[in-house]
Amino acid sequence: MEINDIIKKTNAFLAEEFEVAPESITPGADLKATLELDSLDYIDLVVAIESNFGFKVKPEDFQGIVTFQDFYDYVIARVKQKELV
C-alpha cells in the first residue's frame, strides 16, 4: 500500500469516526486535541486502526504519538512491516 493511500484512508476514517472536518486533520495538528480524544476514544481509535489496516495495536504504541504526522508514521511503519511478513 502506498504512503499517500495510507494517509488518505487514515484521514477518511478519522474524520468519519470522530466527526471532525477533514480539513482540520493536518500533519502538524495535535491528534488528541483535534479529535477531542478521551480514554474511551482511544479504544475506538485502536479498533478503527485494527479493522482498517489489519494489525494489532498495543496501548504503549501511542506513547510517542502527538501529531497526525506521528500517527501516520506509526501506521505506515506497521503496514509496511505487515507487508513484509
TrEMBL record:
This is Acyl carrier protein. The lineage of its organism: Bacteria, Pseudomonadati, Bacteroidota, Chitinophagia, Chitinophagales. 4'-phosphopantetheine is transferred from CoA to a specific serine of apo-ACP by AcpS. This modification is essential for activity because fatty acids are bound in thioester linkage to the sulfhydryl of the prosthetic group. Pathway: Lipid metabolism; fatty acid biosynthesis. The modification O-(pantetheine 4'-phosphoryl)serine is found at S39. GO terms for cellular component: cytosol; membrane. Carrier of the growing fatty acid chain in fatty acid biosynthesis. InterPro entries: ACP, ACP-like_sf, PP-bd_ACP. The gene is acpP.
